[in-house]
Amino acid sequence: MFVLGLLILAGVAHFLYIGWRINWTGAHDRAQPSDAIVVLGARVELDGQPGPDLGSRTLHAVDLFHRGLAPYLICTGGYEGDRLSAAAVARRLAIAQGVPADRVLLADGSMNTGEDAASAKKLMAARGLDTGILVSHPLHLERARLLFEDQGITIYTSPTSIDLKAIPWRTRAWLTAREAVGIVWIGLEELGVPYEWTSELSRAIYGPPMAPGAN
Fold first, then answer.
1. Taking the complete model, does pTM exceed 0.85, yes or no?
2. How many Cα atoms are found within 13 Å in the side-chain-facing hemisphere of 72?
3. CA-based Rg of the chain, rounded to a whole angstrom?
4. Nearest residue to 159 via CA among 31, 65, 2
């Protein structure tokens, strides 16, 4: 029982540390000169307009581009070739904000953050790009960073806002816990836990597969 108690305490301590890391990453903007700025997909409205999260991510990435931090902007998320994918909608918004069309690249064909990372890696490798500024919701960035670094990309995180106190505490607590479980899930997969187990954990935490462009 003593050993079991220690294991439980260690597990709780590790989970709390993961939660701290999620909030630390979200509270610090580490943007620096890179090969590309990667915008993670989010919800698109039924009328084809970017949802609030996708809009804020895209506009933040545009600001980084105009500051000269990277020569390319990569938009991710949604069915490949779909004009209403998160990637396509974000690309149109970026171009409307003055980013040259040939500097906004599509990395669509992805339905979750892990697939976003794989799609972005494929695109970046084809162009010889190795480093990226990763833009997303502040509490999403730590898990996203791990997934992108697993693809061999050097990542610098840049949250849409570093003012975490502006997030209602219940929402912040829920998102932190959800993302922490997601990070544990990544670790379980890396340890070789059967996909059937981790896919059920994913469904329990994140719900069923999301619509195109959602993350």
1. yes
2. 19
3. 17
4. 31
Distance CA 150, CA 162 (A): 25
Q: What is the pLDDT of residues 116-169, one digit of tens each?
A: 999 999 999 999 999 999 999 999 999 999 999 999 999 999 999 999 999 999
Instruction: Tell me what pLDDT residue 81 has.
Output: 87
Q: Are 213 and 54 in contact (CB under 8 A)?
A: yes
31 closest CA partner among 125, 104, 136, 124: 136
Residue 213 lies in a domain: no
Q: In this structure, is the dihedral angle defined by the CA atoms of residues 119, 147, 196 and 200, taken in order, positive or negative?
A: negative
Find the domain containing 101 and state its range: 22-164
> What does the block give as tokens for 200?
């059920």
The Cα 158–Cα 131 span in angstroms is: 13
Q: What CATH number should be reported for the domain holding residue 40? A: 3.40.50.620
Q: How many domains are there within the chain?
A: 1
Quick one: tokens of 5?
Answer: 């108690």
Closest by CA to 70, choosing from 163, 139, 135, is 135
Crossing angle (nearest 10°) for helices 86-96 and 52-66:
50
- The pLDDT of residue 143: 95
Contact between residue 96 and residue 126 where contact means Cβ atoms under 8 Å apart: no
Quick one: DSSP state of residue 214? -
